[in-house]
Design a protein that fits this description.
Helices cover 53% and strands 12% of the residues. By secondary structure, it is of the alpha/beta class.
């Protein structure tokens, strides 16, 4: 079935893409009259090889190039490949031509141009070939298994719907077994009572049994499980809890007791949390030393010249586990009595002229790197809300407080997806919360790097939601 092969073909795509990238670099090197042995031993070129490979990895992760390689249609596949290639090209130009410089590693512009062009040709040709192979091999990849569902309750019918709308999942549903025939709406799918289940399984070469019976029928479930094991038929249980949990769950065991967590939390892993904290400290120190140290005096003078009041705006915000902390920002408004209760709006008369620029470019958030350094915030995470908004929305949105399992961040997944600025409706806040919870459940170090890159990119090009 497709699901069984997806990880394998993802790895194949990743390996071939990197192979083509490095072959392109090698061939161009040879074409420019340089022996292969010199390329392999040239210490000046090896950092360039590393930069090319790392930038391709970053570009592919940002665009999601290797996600769903067996399910994405051809148009979407080529669109993603093209986006990845353009992003790769842009980052290479910025990194090597501007940041590193070609002279430092004796790189010629001809070498860069020919390498990128040749890689683009190889990449496009390979993706055409892959899509052709994928299309021709659909029948093989499908590898359909005959399955039956025992129990025609809500869980059983929802599983039937999943099989129907996921034809490439590789499941050929033969029908239902249930002691009440009226529970099966499609009469052609009713196969009989549960007591006749194993007889049917053995005579019709059924590969898997999906048991969706309620726990109250544990004696029937146990009997079917034992009979399935005796006859080498895979037996799977659909638990009743799925009716009130509408998402992926995380299963672990305490001894032989299964424990189901309603959401995965990668940052509960001590190693992941240590990696994130280490990056926060290093990144915040870099910004404070090399950017904030000279920018603060300049902005302090400009802020003071434009309006009376402190340079920094300090406000209590909701932190991890809903613990309040003092959040720092450059003051972007005239001093007013509504700053702790009223959100900034587009065209807000409280915002100064300098403040409008600071907010549009997100420079007003720079002092929060001190919050990061002290451990109250992270570089990436859900944006911290005013205490009054936390109290308000926690009563209106069921999962609002889930975002407080994490440290708040200077930027976050919601912000780079346009869910920032004023939230005029509960629906707008709900979208932001959903994005924050998604980040909590899908955290990775690469995702943090992607969010930081997109934040910088949005600041440079301008964000219409920043005001």
């Amino acid at each position: 079935m497709v699901n069984k092969y997806s990880t394998f073909f993802k790895a194949i795509n990743l390996f071939v893409d990197y192979l083509l990238l490095n072959i392109s670099m090698l061939l161009v090197y040879v074409y420019l009259d340089k022996p292969v042995t010199i390329f392999l031993n040239n210490k000046q070129y090896l950092p360039v090889v590393l930069v090319f490979n790392l930038i391709w990895l970053l570009s592919a992760n940002i665009t999601g190039l290797y996600e769903h390689v067996l399910n994405k249609d051809s148009v979407k596949t080529f669109r993603t490949v093209f986006q990845t290639y353009l992003l790769f090209l842009s980052l290479i130009c910025i990194t090597i031509l501007i940041v590193i410089g070609t002279k430092r590693y004796s790189i010629t512009r001809s070498y860069l141009f020919y390498t990128i062009a040749l890689f683009g040709f190889f990449l496009g040709s390979w993706k055409v070939a892959f899509l052709y192979i994928r299309r021709r091999g659909r029948g093989i990849l499908k590898d359909a298994r005959n399955v039956i569902i025992v129990g025609a309750g809500r869980a059983g019918h929802e599983l039937r719907t999943y099989f129907r709308y996921n034809p490439f999942g590789g499941y050929n549903l033969l029908g239902f077994f249930d002691d009440n025939p009226e529970r099966v709406a499609e009469k052609g799918l009713y196969l009989g009572h549960t007591q006749h289940c194993m007889e049917y399984v053995l005579t019709n070469k059924v590969d898997e049994i999906y048991c969706a019976l309620p726990y109250s029928q544990h004696d029937v479930i146990e009997r079917l499980m034992i009979d399935a094991d005796k006859n080498l038929v895979r037996f799977k249980i659909v638990p009743e809890y799925h009716e009130y949990i509408k998402k992926h769950t995380y299963l672990q065991t305490f001894g032989n007791i299964p424990i189901i967590s309603i959401r995965p939390e990668p940052l509960e892993n001590l190693l992941n949390r240590g990696l994130k904290r280490g990056f926060d400290i290093a990144f915040s120190l870099f910004v404070i030393v090399f950017l904030f140290s000279w920018l603060y005096p300049l902005l302090a003078i400009l802020i003071k010249l434009e309006s009376k009041g402190p340079v920094l705006f300090v406000q209590k915000r909701s932190g991890r586990d809903n613990s309040p902390f003092n959040c720092y920002k450059f003051r972007s408004m005239y001093v007013n009595k509504e700053s702790d209760t009223l959100q900034a709006t587009k065209g807000d008369s409280r915002i100064t002229r300098l403040g409008a620029f600071l907010r549009r470019t997100s420079i007003d958030e720079l002092p929060q790197f001190f919050n990061v350094l002290t451990g109250h915030m992270s570089v990436v995470g859900p944006r911290p809300h005013m205490i009054s908004h936390t109290e308000q929305y926690s009563q209106l949105i069921d999962r609002f407080m889930v975002r407080h399992f994490l440290k708040p961040g200077i930027t976050g997944w919601a912000q780079v997806n346009g869910l920032r600025g004023e939230t005029r409706t509960t629906e707008a806040m709900l979208e932001r919360v959903e994005a924050d919870v998604w980040y909590l459940e899908n955290w990775s170090f690469v995702l943090d790097m992607k969010i930081i890159f997109l934040t910088v990119w949005n600041s440079v090009r301008g964000d219409k939601h920043a005001f």
